[in-house]
Structures are given as structure tokens and as C-alpha cells.
Amino acid sequence: MIHWQVIIPLFVFLIIIFAIGFWANKQVRNSSSFLQEYFLGGREMGGFLLAMTMMATYGSASSFIGGPGVSYNLGLGWVLLAMAQLPAGYFVLMILGKKFAIISRRYEAITLIDFLKKRYDSNIVVFISAISIIVFLFASMTAQWVGGARLIESLTGLNYTVALLIFAVTVLVYVVIGGFRAVALTDALQGTIMIIGTIVLLIGTILAGGGIDNIMGSLLKENPQMLSPFGSDGSLTPLYVSTFWILIGLGVIGLPQIAVRAMSYKDSKSLHRAILIGTFGIGTIMFGMHLIGVLARPVTPGIEIADKVMPTLTLEVLPPVLAGIVLAAPMAAIMSTVNALLMLVSSTVVKDVYLNFINPQATDKQIKNRSFWVTTIIGLAVVLFSLNPPELLIMLNLFAFGGLESAFLWAVVFGLYWSKANKYGAISSMVVGLVMYIAIYRLAPNVFGMHTVTLPIIASLITFVLVSLGTQSKSSYNPTKF
Amino acid sequence: MKDARFKIANREALIGVALVIINFAIWFGFAYGLGEGDPKEYDFIWGFPAWFFYSCIAGTIFMIILIWIAIKVLFKDVSFHDEEDKA
């Protein structure tokens, strides 16, 4: 079944995004510093752009599709858990904040790895970082890509392969030609759609359910535990839910795709505005979308596949054109995450691997050429993997999340704020964090009733401090006075 | 030489930590303080269970206002360029 009312707004949306890509390409061609322009947009972002690109990069398929699906089954407890993401709006920017902006300019860092390399003066740090970014974010990109294609498939009635190709071509074209500037500008559009879509769908769902009182009444009748903070099956313990603060709130500092944005803005004012706008945006989306999942239960009962809750609900409760606009929101969320990841993996390969290890003397022309090609090839490789889609979308996504956080969180935070942090501390904490995360994930997920990420983060913190202190005599290298 | 801008940056990072602690306390306190017990005996505010209203709705709005005040009152403008730069 083909829904034209959905296809037309999506189509308009894609055209605007293409136009932004071509406009940004002009800036790339006119820029005097290709690397800084292509991978950081010339460090010119204002407050609104910064907030939107942070929020849109962070908000992904799981916020719009997976998350509401879980809320549908677990109830208000899952909305409570989702609200642990509020700090992602202000905490990250306050911690990285001005210090990261000043130091990354001083080091002339284009990527997060650039910063780590100059701070710790260690090729091993660069190597571990590059490998973990490429592996984890490739996996995460594939998951998002599959999500995007499945969404187009279910909305338009096209088959999976065609849907995947449409999605891939759109993203690849504007990212490859426009670079970071195109990514940030389209993020602003996509972020706006995400916020508006959330608000419209929330209102539509409340109206369709006959008001909050009515909906809560039906939920109470069906299963009173839907209204408790512990989840419909009692599985959401306070300890478990609290440890999500580490995964989706605080640890977000360690996500390279987020951290790199904290070096791309213009001035203090932009930062201040971005913190407010970003917190408001993330609060609205996370609260709205997850609450929508709960409210959907009495409105459209009996949906078996969790990922179908949001699209089904939208088509059910909203008039055709509005439904089209709202369904552009998860599209936007997926695209804006994928484009950031693509840009980041590409910058890692070009700047951190190629320029670092393979050809440090590359000319501007070579760099330009390689950047376009690397971005294209990575994009196509993701498409290839997505043809044979892996199953658990949220799981894959969270795997990448936790792995990167375990690796990077302390190296970044201590690198900025602790003058005794040295390369031995950084290397050992990255290895401990990564190995422990993967081991716990495979062997005993959510051990002791805490989210998998908790212990690796604590262990890598302790390792970092002890090893740094123990090796002060060997290396107290620190290029920046604190 | 100590960079005066780093002192400001460090202070603002600490403010971030303080805000997160307040955020967590509100979120946790209301959710599990009021959410214990039988949902059939919950108080409701605007149709929502009271724990949910305070923890997720009022708490979030309160945090946004608090962040706004913190930025207006405590955060300072600094230049990101080192002095020897042309800017």
C-alpha cells in the first residue's frame, strides 16, 4: 500500500536537503582550509545550529521508533528512564565547554583523535581510538541505515532494497559534497522537524485518546503497573534505571560524534544559547516521544511489533498531510545521526589514519580527493552490510554507545582537566574500558542489576588515575598548562 | 603562566556537575518517593500519576529554568583564540 500523503512531504524534505548539500559544497570549494571546512564547517556554528546538530545527532532511530515501542509495552517507567537523557543537553556542553573550544583551537585539532594525540603524544592512543571509532560507529551506522530503510519501506510500500537505495543516495550525496557544513545545516532542519513532529503527535494522540484522564484510566484497568515507575512487569529497578544516567546522560561526553561538535562552534555566546536550546529540545523530544508510546496503548491496542507503534499510531490519529510531516521526524532523526557518523568515520580514516600513519606529506589536492572518496566508499560499504540486515536495532546501537563511552570518556575528561593525566593512564584505561565492556556484554549483561556500561566506566576511571599517578616519573608530558 | 580563561572554564564545569546532581536528586526522589505502593492509590495531577508529574514534567521544567539562570548569572564570555593568534 502506497501512502501518497506521506510520500509527498518526505519528497519535499529530501529536495530541500539536496539543495543544502549543493550550497554547502560551494563553501567547501571556496574555503582556504579544506580540512577545517570539510570536517568542522570552519568552526563557525552559532548557538541554534550547535544545539540542533547536537540534538539531532544524539536523537536517533531509537528515540523515535525503538523507544516509543518499549514504552508501549512497559509504561511510564520507560519514560522515566528516557528522561535520564536530559543532561545530554547541558552537561556535555558544560563539561567540554570552553576549555575544549580553547584547547582544540590551540592544538589545531580537527577531530577528537587529534586532540587526544596532541594531549597524550602517543600513537597507541591514536591507534586504539581510530579502531574503536571505525568498528563501533560502522556497526551503529548500519543499524541506523537499516532503520531508515525499514521506515521508508513501511511508509511507502516500496521493497527494502529500493528503500535502502533511496535513503543511501540521499544521505551520501549531501554529505559527500557538502561536508560538515551540510551536515550541520540539514541537522538544523531535521532537528526542527523532530521537535515539531513530537509536539504534533503528542497532541494528536491525547485528543484521539479522549484526554490524559481517560487514557490513564484505561491503562490502570489493563495493568496498574503500567503507571508505576517499575514497568509493567516490574523489571525496571531503581538501581538499573539510575545506571542509565551513565549511559545516556553523562557518558555522552565520551561519544566522538558528540564531542567533535563541541569544537566546532563560534564563540561563548553560541555555547550559552546552545545549552538552553539543546536542553529544551532534548527534553521535549525524549519526554514527548516516549510518553506517546505509553499513550498509544489504549489508542491503538494490540500492536505486536514494537517498532511499528509510532508509524501505525501516526497514520491512525493524524490527518493525512500532518501524518506525512510527523513521519518525516523519524526519517530526520535517522538521517541526522547517520550523516554525523559518516562524517566522523570518514574524518577518522582521512585525518587520523591516512595523514597520521600513511602519508603525512599529502598535498591539499590529495587530501581533498581522498576525503570525497573515503566518504563515498564508507557510505557504500554500509549500504552493502545493510542489505542483509542484523536484527536488534536498539541493541546494536547501545553496544556502540557503551563501547565508545568506556573507551573515550576518561581520556577526554582527564585530558582536559587533570594535569597529571598521561599516556599510560589513557592507554590502560581505554583498554580496560573496552575489554571489560565487551566481556560483560557477552558474558553477564546488566551484572548486579546495573546497566552493562556501569562497571567498565568505573574500572577505567580507577585504572586511569592509578596508572597515571604510578607512571609520573616516566611521563608527565602535558602540552598545556592548566 | 596560568590561563585565566581556564579558571572560568573549570568553574563552569563544576556548575555542570552541580546541576546534574540536582537533576538526578529531583528525578530519583519524586519517582521512587511517590511511586512506591499500589498504582490504584496514586494521587493524580493533570491526569498523570503524581510521581510522574513531579519527576518528569515539573522537574524537567524546573531544570530548564535553573540552567537558564545559571547561564545568565554565572557563565562568562571568553575568547577562544590565544592572544598571539590573529583571531
From TrEMBL, chain A:
Localisation per UniProt entry: Membrane
Membrane topology (UniProt): Multi-pass membrane protein
Keyword Chloroplast listed: no
Entries under PROSITE patterns matching the protein: NA_SOLUT_SYMP_1, NA_SOLUT_SYMP_2, NA_SOLUT_SYMP_3
Transmembrane segments: 6-24, 45-65, 77-96, 124-146, 158-180, 192-212, 239-262, 274-297, 317-350, 371-388, 394-417, 424-444, 450-471
Keywords: Cell membrane, Membrane, Transmembrane, Transmembrane helix, Transport
Superkingdom, natural source: Bacteria
GO cellular component, one term: plasma membrane
GO biological process: sodium ion export across plasma membrane
MF term (GO), any: pantothenate transmembrane transporter activity
InterPro entries: Na/Glc_symporter_sf, Na/pantothenate_symporter, Na/solute_symporter, Na/solute_symporter_CS, Sodium:Solute_Symporter
Protein family per UniProt: Belongs to the sodium:solute symporter (SSF) (TC 2.A.21) family.
PANTHER family for the chain: SODIUM/PROLINE SYMPORTER-RELATED, SODIUM_PANTOTHENATE SYMPORTER
Identification of the protein by name: Sodium/pantothenate symporter
Protein source organism: Ureibacillus chungkukjangi
Organism placement in taxonomy: Bacteria, Bacillati, Bacillota, Bacilli, Bacillales
TrEMBL record, chain B:
Pfam families: DUF997
Name this polypeptide is given: Putative membrane protein YhdT
PANTHER family the UniProt entry points to: INNER MEMBRANE PROTEIN (PTHR39174:SF1), INNER MEMBRANE PROTEIN-RELATED (PTHR39174)
InterPro entries in UniProt: DUF997 (IPR010398)
Membrane-spanning intervals of the chain: 12-31, 51-71
Domain of life: Bacteria
Key words, A-Z: Membrane, Transmembrane, Transmembrane helix
